[in-house]
Amino acid sequence: MMFRRSVLITALTPTVALAQAPKKPVMGRPAPAKPKKPADTPPTGSAAQTPLGPLDTAAKFAVIIDHTTGATLLDKDADASMVPSSMTKLMTAYIVYSMLKTGRLKLDQMLPVSEKAWRMQGSKMFVALGTQVKVEDLIRGMIVQSGNDACIVLAEAIAGSEEQFAELMNTKGRELGLQQSHFRNSTGWPDAEHRMSARDIAVVARRLITDFPEYYKYDAEKSFKYNNIDQANRNPLVQKNLADGLKTGHTDDGGYGLVGSSERRGRRVILVLNGMTSMHQRAEEGEKLLEWAFREWENVTLFSAADTVEKVPVWLGTAPTVPLVAGRDVVLTMPKSWRNTAKVSLAYETPVRAPVQRGSTLGTLTVTGRGVPETEVQLLAGADVPQLGFVNRAMAVLSKRLGGA
Q: Which stretch of DSSP H or E encloses residue 115?
C-alpha cells in the first residue's frame, strides 16, 4: 500500500520539522511528473524565467546554475541553439585537461606551430611560425588571451588536425550529455553549423571546475605575456575580482557572450550570457545577475546522508521497522525569501516485506513550494532486516489472523 504525507519546512533543520509533524501517514498517490521542456525549443524572446518569476536581462540567452546542486536559478532560452563564439574554447580546454590528466600531454611539453595556427585570425596569442611552444603557455594563451592560434596548436598536437579535433569535441560532448552542441572547430570561429546552447556551456563549465580543479586556476589570471606582448584577461568579472573564471566570446552573429563562476561563503554559481550588444553591456549584465544569484539564493542541507527520514513498518522481519535514509546529503538551492514555504513529501510502500537489504530503494522524497526548484530524492533502506525464521513467521501470520487484522 502506498502512503504519502507532506510537511512544511519551518526550520533550517528539516529533520526536526519532520519529527514534529503528524506521525500518521495519509494515503494517497504520488503526484504525476511534470513534462520537461523539449531541449530544442526555439528562442521566443521572452523574459528570463526564475523560480521566483520573470527577471529582466539584456542578454538574448541566459542561464544561471548552482554548481553544487545543479539547480537552475535563471533561464532565458537556455536550451536554444546559438552561436557560442569563443566560449567554445571551454570545450577545447576540457579535452586538453583530460589529456593532461591521463598523461598524454605534459605541461612542459613543447608543441610545434603550424602555418595554419600562425595565420589564424581573430584573437591571438601571437605564436611564431616554425617555433615550439610549451603546453602551459598555450593553455594561458587559450584561456587568458583567448588565442585562436593557441587552440589550433593544441588541437593539431592532440588529434592531428583541427577537423579531427572537432570530432573529438563532438564525441566528448555526447559523453557530457550536451543536447544542443555541434562543433566544427576548436576556437568558435564563425561556421553556420557550429552551435551550442547556454545550458550546454554551463554543463561544460561545471565539469571543468569539478573535474580539473588543478587547471582551473589559469582562469583567474588577469593577464599573460607571451612573445613580449602582454594581454589582459577579457573576462570583466575576473578583472573586478567578482569571479575566478571562465571565458568571454564575441562574433558579429553571436553578439557578446560571457561565462563566469564565483564562490562565496562556500557556495559557487555559474553564469552564462550571450547575445548582448557591447562589452559594456556584457560586463554590466554579468555583474548584476551574479550579485542577484548570491543575494536571493542559498543552499540548505535538508538531510545528511545517514539521517533517518522516516521509519517504515516491516512485515515478518527480525526488526519491527526499517529506517529510510537519503543515502547522501540532500542539499537544495532555495530562495531566501521563500524557503519557509517549502514542503517535503514522503511516499513509500508499507509495510515492507522482509528480508530488506540495506541500500535498496523503498520510497521517494519530493520537495516543492513557491520559488523552490522541484526535487525528488530516492529513499533507501538504512539497515538490513533479515526475515524471521519459519516458526516465528508462522506465529506472526497466525497472530495476525487471530487478531482479525
A: helix 115-119
pLDDT at 44 over 60: no
Q: Which three cell numbers stand for residue 40?
A: 530544442
Q: Which residues contact 386 (CB under 8 A, 6 or more apart)?
A: 317, 318, 354, 355
Q: Are 210 and 330 members of one domain?
A: no
CB 127 within 8 A of CB 113: yes
User: How many other C-beta atoms lie within 10 A of the C-beta of residue 54?
Assistant: 11
Task: State how far the Cα of 178 lies from the Cα of 249, in Å rounded to an integer.
Answer: 19
The answer to whether residues 284 and 368 belong to one domain is: no
- Whichever domain contains 314, its CATH number is 2.60.410.10
State pTM to two decimals.
0.81
Shared-domain flag, residues 289 and 315: no
Q: Structural domain of residue 127, as residue ranges?
A: 48-296
Checking if the pLDDT of 7 tops 80, the result is no
User: What is the count of structural domains for the chain?
Assistant: 2
pLDDT score recorded for residue 28: 33
Residue whose C-alpha cell reads 548552482 in the numeric block: 66
In whole angstroms, what is the distance from residue 185 CA to residue 192 CA? 11
All cell numbers assigned to 89: 574554447
Start-end of H helices in 177-328: 198-211, 213-216, 236-239, 279-296
Q: Give the pLDDT band of residue 198 (cuts 50, 70, 90).
A: very high
Active-site residues, by number, are 86, 89, 146
51 pLDDT band, cuts 50/70/90, is: confident
Pair (93, 13) in one structural domain: no
Residue-wise pLDDT tens digits, 59-74? 999 999 999 999 999 9
Helix (H, G, I), strand (E, B) or coil at 263: strand
Rounded Cα distance between 397 and 405, Å, is 10
Q: Is residue 365 within 8 Å of residue 344, measured between CB atoms?
A: yes
Q: Burial of 393 by CB count in 10 Å (0-12 exposed, 13-18 middle, 19+ buried)?
A: middle
CA 3 to chain centre: 32
- Where is the domain boundary, 271, 296, 321? 296
Q: Is residue 229 part of a domain?
A: yes
Summarize the confidence of residues 223-228 as an average pLDDT.
Answer: 95
Which domain-ending residue is among 296, 312, 333? Answer: 296
CATH of the domain at 125: 3.40.710.10
